[in-house]
Amino acid sequence: MTYDPYNPKQQPGDPYGQQQPYGQPGQPGPYGQQPMYGYGYPPPMPPKPQTNAILALVLSCVGLATCGVTAIVGVIFGHIAMGRIKRGEEDGRGMALAGVIVGYVVIAGWLLYLAIIIIAIVAAANQSTY
After folding, report:
1. What pLDDT, in 10s, does the model give residues 9-21?
2. Whole-model pTM?
3. Which among 2, 28, 57, 119 is placed 20 to 30 Å from 69, CA to CA?
4. How large is the C-alpha radius of gyration of the chain?
């Protein structure tokens, strides 16, 4: 019997077409040692958390409905997130910055609203009704 190169079951030196067993465990395969991660690239890094940045933006926006109390907490979380972003522990700089800006605007708006209410009350109390 002659060797047929188009018959995948027949190996050179194997007249009966039986496949040869693979090499010993731990030895590289027929194409050499394969890289651990496809094509030699390292595995992708997991995304960094953005918890404080998300909390900053959400609490600052909720401050519109809660008299600005949660906006204060949102500003605090925003500054914490900005510090962690600067150290490279977290991502989400834009979200943290938006949370800080929205928080300060909401606080200023509520303070302005409160000042107008107080001025109106004082002006109404000082009017004489003679």
Report:
1. 665 555 555 555 5
2. 0.63
3. 119
4. 35
